[in-house]
Specification:
The strands form two sheets. Strands 1, 5, 6, 7, 8, 11, 12 and 13 form an eight-stranded mixed beta sheet that branches. Strands 2-3-4-10-9 form a five-stranded antiparallel beta sheet. By secondary structure, the chain is mainly β. The radius of gyration is 16 Å and the shape is globular. The protein has one domain: Immunoglobulin-like, CATH 2.60.40.
Length: 216
């Protein structure tokens, strides 16, 4: 059964404030199909859109975090990591973009139809996608064990570069999954919003994407 996340539209000119995020109904990353150590960090996701962008907030509650990668295109899924895999136009094909981000905002992104068929999106190409974090490279050692937060803004123009002209209007359906992982963190873990049924850890399973429905 596929989860459905209904997201609203907000007239927003600046970066989202905490007041804006507090109005959003969260979804939870609470399926852990490959739960070897029972480590299940509580992770909430909030999402909305305005005239030009999608805005996503991840909030992960972990007692300790791992940050080893500092350069764009590094394998940040080995760190404490949150991820969005998104197909904004499923009626036109199965291609999707993956956004993978660690606590200090280092991002890995790619596009393709499955795990093997992927093309990296370079740091220069993805610079229009804004990332804001509650932790920086300078403050990561001060993490207090409460929660860490990532905000990602994805311009429509960026998506249209890869998927062609898109109409993000009320009633449009997209496909996506949200993840929390840490392959080489203190407690390796693999969580997802829409449940994946596979024998070994693999987030590149578009057949298990849930639905995102745009509201007015």
């Amino acid at each position: 059964m596929k989860n459905i996340y209904r997201i609203g539209k907000i007239d927003l000119q600046d970066d989202p404030s905490e007041h804006i995020w507090s109005r959003m109904v969260p979804i939870n990353i609470d399926f852990f199909p490959w739960d070897a150590n029972h480590y299940r960090p509580r992770t909430e996701v909030r999402m909305f859109y305005n005239e030009t962008d999608f805005h996503v907030q991840f909030k992960a509650r972990e007692p300790e975090i791992t940050v080893s990668y500092y350069k764009m295109d590094d394998p940040v899924y080995k760190d404490s990591c949150v991820e969005l895999f998104l197909n904004p136009c499923p009626e036109n094909g199965s291609q999707y973009i993956n956004f993978e981000i660690n606590p200090i905002g280092t991002m890995l992104a790619g596009i393709g139809t499955n795990k093997q068929d992927r093309k990296r999106i370079t740091s220069n190409a993805i610079k229009s996608c804004k990332v804001k974090t509650s932790i920086t490279e300078q403050t990561v050692s001060l993490y207090n064990g409460e929660y860490w937060e990532v905000q990602l803004s994805i311009p429509f123009l960026f998506l249209e570069h890869y998927f062609g002209k898109l109409d993000f209007i009320q009633g449009k359906e997209m496909q996506a999954n949200f993840y929390k992982c840490g392959d080489e963190s203190l407690f390796p873990h693999y969580g997802c919003w829409n449940e994946i049924k596979a024998q070994s850890p693999n987030f590149h399973c578009p057949e298990y994407f849930g639905k995102i429905l745009l509201l007015s």
